[in-house]
Amino acid sequence: MRSAFTYVGMSLFMASMGACAAGTGGPSGGGVGGAGGGTGGNAGTAGTSGSSGSSGSSGSSSGSGGSSSGSGGSSSGSGGSSTGSGGSSGTTGTGGTSTGAGGTTGGTSVTDLIDDMDQEPPTGSIYSRNGRVGAWYTYNDETAGAQQSPEMGASFLPDAGGRNNTSAAHTAGSGFTNWGAGMGFDLNNNGTTKLTWDASAFTGIAFWAKGTAFRVKVLVPATVPSAEGGTCSGATGCGDNHGRAVEAATDWRQVVVPFSALMQEGWGTATAFTANQVIGIQFQTEKSATFDVWIDDIGFY
Question: In this structure, is the dihedral angle defined by the CA atoms of residues 27, 28, 31 and 35, taken in order, positive or negative?
């Protein structure tokens, strides 16, 4: 099996509540385009210079959709003496290019926070809200001599060094040569029974991350072994979870992953993603990697 479902529940209820996953689109990933809007605004300014056109001033509100093409800027200033040439600056919205599902952005607002790792006193649990209950844990392939911190099965507490000088979920290690290691949490695990949580009211997950590369995975029953709360019973096909790759980054950046962008890797049992039945979320490294992964402020949007 390519995933650690036998270890997913190791520290299932270390306290009583606490925080999400990502896309491979990388820095240019879009769909979110929060930062691209401002560019179109410059177009409007140029429009007002038209000697005869009063409508150029409307350009100041254009370009709010700069996340894809900044096309709003190009149309502003049309009432000027020529063409409101300042609008050309709106063509490259800084929020990124076309789709890049799962890419990086800094402007997506989480509407249902899962965890920000800032509970007092510190706990290893996600926030208890909207029917969710679960705890952070680490897991790995148990390669002899390999190391991971926190150790699998040990108490998981947030580390200092979060994106706002607070705390964050953090795991580091090396030497796992089978399929790797990771950390994660369940969304509906009372310490005895692992159940699912309905996330179908949301578009996807968003979180802040830094460190080495990893794959964010959103677990649904069809890819999880029955012993771990799922419905998968294949000897080798379980564990091919839906997810997206996230590139390494030295600084904190927000990662946004629409559910529609989640994909299986293709080696296990093929199944559709069911947003209304989510077991949990994991952040998994590649095998043989030296890893250092930080996660903060995770939630649904």
Answer: positive
* Phi, then psi, of 168 in degrees rounded to 5: -150, 160
Beta bridge partners of 92: none
28 SS3 class: helix
Please report, in tens digits, the pLDDT of each residue of the chain (301 residues total): 444 433 333 333 333 333 333 333 333 333 333 333 333 334 334 334 334 334 434 333 333 443 333 333 333 334 433 333 443 333 333 333 333 334 444 589 999 999 999 999 999 999 999 999 999 999 999 999 999 999 999 999 999 999 988 999 999 999 999 999 999 999 999 888 899 999 999 999 999 999 999 999 999 999 999 989 999 987 778 999 999 999 999 999 999 999 999 999 999 999 999 999 999 999 999 999 999 999 999 999 9
Side chain identity at 240, as an amino acid letter? D
Q: Is 158 left (phi over 0), alpha (psi -120 to 50) or beta?
A: beta
Nearest by Cα to 252 from 215, 298, 291, 288? 298
pTM listed for this prediction: 0.66
Q: Return d(Cα 53, Cα 83) in angstroms, integer.
A: 10
Strand-pair partners of 24: none
Which residue spans within the chain are E strands per DSSP? 104-105, 112-115, 136-140, 147-149, 159-160, 167-174, 181-186, 204-211, 214-219, 242-246, 249-258, 280-284, 291-300
Residue 167 CB-density burial (10 A; 0-12 exposed, 13-18 middle, 19+ buried): buried
Characterize 264-301 residue by residue with b for buried, 16 or more Cβ atoms within 10 angstroms of its Cβ, and e for exposed: beeebeebebbbebbbbbbbbbeeebebbbbbbbbbbb
Residue with tokens 């789709």: 99
